[in-house]
Amino acid sequence: MAVFRSGLLVLTTPLTSLAPRLAPILTSAARLVNHTLYVHLQPGMCLGGPAQPQSSPVQATFEVIDFITHLYAGADVHRHLDVRILLTNIRTKSFLPPLTSSVQNLAHPPEVVLTDFQTLDGSQYNPAKQQLERYATSCYSCCPQLSSVLLYPDYGPGVLPVGSLDVPLASTISPASPVGRSAKQPVRGHRRGAVGGTFDRLHNAHKVLLSVACLLAQEQLVVGVADKDLLKSKLLPELLQPYAERVEHLSEFLVDIKPSLTFDIIPLLDPYGPAGSDPSLEFLVVSEETYRGGMAVNRFRLENDLEELTLYQIQLLKDLNHKENEEDKVSSSSFRQQMLGNLLRPPHKRPELPPGFYVIGLTGISGSGKSSVAQRLKGLGAYVIDSDHLGHRAYAPGGPAYQPVVKAFGTDILHKDGIINRKVLGSRVFGNKKQLKMLTDIMWPVIAKLAREEMEQAMAEGKHVCVIDAAMLLEAGWQNMVHEVWTVVIPETEAVRRIVERDGLSEAAAQSRLQSQMSGQQLVDQSHVVLSTFWEPHVTQHQVEKAWALLQKRISEAPSGP
Description:
- This protein is of the alpha/beta class.
- The protein has 3 domains: 4-150, Rossmann fold (3-Layer(aba) Sandwich); 188-314, 3-Layer(aba) Sandwich (Rossmann fold); 340-557, Rossmann fold (3-Layer(aba) Sandwich).
- The chain has helices spanning 15-18, 22-32, 62-75, 126-139, 204-216, 243-257, 291-303, 332-339, 370-379, 387-395, 402-409, 422-429, 433-460, 492-503, 507-515, 520-524, 537-557, and strands at residues 4-11, 33-41, 58-59, 82-86, 90-91, 112-115, 147-150, 190-197, 217-226, 262-268, 283-287, 310-314, 358-364, 383-386, 465-469, 484-489, 529-532.
- The chain has a 5-stranded parallel beta sheet with strand order 4-2-1-6-7, with helices on both faces. A 5-stranded parallel beta sheet has the order 10-9-8-11-12, with helices on both faces.
- Helix 3 runs antiparallel to helix 5 (204-216), helix 10 packs across helix 13 and helix 14 (492-503) crosses helix 15 (507-515).
- Keywords: ATP-binding, Coenzyme A biosynthesis, Cytoplasm, Kinase, Mitochondrion, Multifunctional enzyme, Nucleotide-binding, Nucleotidyltransferase, Phosphoprotein, Signal, Transferase.
- Its EC number is 2.7.1.24, 2.7.7.3.
- It is an enzyme of class 2 (transferase).
- GO terms for molecular function: ATP binding; dephospho-CoA kinase activity; pantetheine-phosphate adenylyltransferase activity.
């Protein structure tokens, strides 16, 4: 059967009966759609009658919200799918205007429409499929050559074990906020509200938070997106998507699920954001983790003579497949950890190098643990070139950089035995851009030449992968010598601690050293693979082994010719 890039899943079974069947339905849909799956809830709709079914309002109850959460949680096992539950026909009690007859545009027009509707004989009954296609195109912009599939009986038997139906779903909104309630209780609508977050790599837990906010808001939703100082405490901030990219994905999702709302997406630069100062807002959606922040927002509003916001606290989605050192909830932090060791952008082509020889440039800020990663790669079979060692060779009496450096900086940089005093030389160039450039103009070409000689030695020894370990790899322009740049990252506070402990410097001196280098973010922006030594040594080893295995796969699959 064909696989489609985008699809629309129309769910017609009553929600209490549908919940236990949801996992096999999503699995069946995931076999047919490989990118975007829109979901439209129309419980009770019949595709087997003579009349063409019409879209009708579904009242927003706590049961509906809990089902939406259940669906997003179930979809998390199909992470290749971008699932979007459409809310256009789901209305709160206080705002139930008739549905408009206009067709809603979608960012990814569905190529196939699927349904859980059960025909009597379980066949691909043509009249039902025709009604399904007409229904889909009357509601949403679909591809001209729309296909249709009745998922039943592919998603499993029609009769489920006794006791599996009418089991209440886990509550999405914490009973403590706003009040205890029953599943069938309608959700109260508000005109304007707010929600905030980082929204990095928009995932299903984000989608629950945003969907609840969209259901509650009837006119305007203010969405604060964390930026700048609020990102500093994030895990692996170097791998966060840029603000503009996060906003783009967020905006597309929001407009898709509820285009009738006005969305005001703004950068969140302090813990309060617009929720702390906008008098027109009525509610704030928070997670279990940010509930205290919501309480702080309300205290701040009261201090400034503004009414408190109604807080809706959303339960976290559990990640049942989380690994060691990853959070047990669905989170962007875990997704960023999973990126460590992966290829982030295509490798450079290096036709000037022999086809069977592959060069990695390994870099990282001071204290990042770069050299320990180099030794781990050496243990896996890589030939490691230590640029610091090459620098020592170049500085040594008789070395290729010795005379040029002495000529440029004078004999007062020498020890009594004629060896260059690197501490004296370092103090001369530190903080003096002109002097530093004079030194690097001498040293970097010399070290690059020595590195090329080492690469020839590696080839002579039959090595297939060579790693150039160099803190100044990118500053020196040596990325032109390698196929891939691998960067080791570490939080700056941890780097400072390590430098102080290793080199005996003061914290201020360690900070000064880091500020004189490219930042971790600047390095990552030009990197193909990112690693981190932040956790226990065995976690680093696992990352390096993963990166090495993926590298070997890339090399084996690369064309052998020039």
